[in-house]
Amino acid sequence: MVFSKKLTAEEFNPEVIMNSGQVFRMKRETKGADGMPDTYSACSGDNDIYFYLNKETDTWDFVCEESQWEFWQNYFDFNTDYVKYNNLIRKSNDKFLKESLMDSFGMRILRQDLWEVFISYVISQNNNIPKIKKSIQCLCDRYSDGIHFPKADVLAYIPQDELMDGTALGYRADYIIGISKQVVEGKLDILKISQMSYEDAYSALLQIKGIGPKVANCIMLYGFHFMESYPIDTWMKKIIAEDYSNYSKSEYLEYINSSYSGFEGYVQQLQFYHKRNK
Question: Rounded to an integer, what distance in angstroms lies between the CA atom of residue 3 and that of residue 75?
């Protein structure tokens, strides 16, 4: 079915979202020509969707199964007013952040499938985005239908040598198998962790082999939707060192937490996208 939604350029821009480092399975399928729009797709867990800007109605049209539409509305976080966050940023004195906002119109923080985002960010550690995407697609091709993400009860029983072969997972294969086995055996309940307080969820994630502070914060922001999470990767370290050099790291984080409380993770995505573009 086709579901239409009126969204301004400030409220929704898939090019910005899919290149912001938060998602690995959203892409532009076709480049529009002769008046036809660009067409995008996204997959998350068992769900898949196509969407495009309908120039005749000036709405974004989303094509998916009727039973999946609720999932996708939640996925795109359509109930959150991101313009409100933008207005607060516009009132700030932060030149770099204001530049980031201008460069990142249409950013949203997605609410991705918990299992897929969990494993995706285990794969992401000490890795780059093209390799992460390649590894994830390889898992989908080998151990699912090429579209949907493989389940824990499949990944748990793959020999480690096989899982490492041609997937570019390397040492991360051991973490993926271990986490999958814990899920299958009922020792790890990701949904339960996602419903904990920020502090308790963060502590619980750090107890899992293969998850450190950066990966934990990514899972909490892009999967659990803890908007106060502020992942620090190499790009963010670069931003702190080059664009906020008058702050120490602890002073900088104190500034972010006090000035943008409740949407720190959104601020991080704007900065990340802008810095990579520069």
Answer: 15
Three-class DSSP labels, 30-55: ECCCCCCCCEEEEEECCEEEEEEEEC
Flag the least confident range among 25-39, 46-60, 163-177. 25-39
Rounded Cα distance, 22 and 30, in Å: 22
d(CA 244, CA 233): 15
Q: Rounded to an integer, what distance in angstroms lies between the CA atom of residue 211 and that of residue 56?
A: 47
Contact 66, 53 (CB under 8 A): no
Burial 224-250 (b: 16+ CB within 10 A, else e): bbbbbbbbbbebbeebbeebbeeeeee
Tokens of 117: 């985002």
8-state DSSP, 133: H
Q: Which residues pair with 44 in a beta bridge?
A: 47
Q: What is the CA radius of gyration of the chain?
A: 19
pLDDT at 30: 79
Coil/strand/helix, residue 5: strand
DSSP 26: E
Assess whether pLDDT exceeds 90 at residue 109.
Answer: yes
d(CA 16, CA 38): 14
Residue appearing with tokens 């984080």: 253
Give percent of the chain with pLDDT exceeding 70.
99
The pLDDT score that the predictor gives to residue 37 is: 82
The CA distance from 40 to 24, in Å, is 13
Measured from the Cβ of residue 49, the count of other Cβ atoms closer than 10 Å reads 21
Residue 93's nearest CA partner among 239, 269, 244 is 244
pTM, two decimals, is 0.92
SS3 content of the chain, % helix, strand, coil (to 5): 50, 10, 40
In sequence order, what are the beta bridge partners of 59?
A: 54
Mean per-residue pLDDT for 88-106? 96
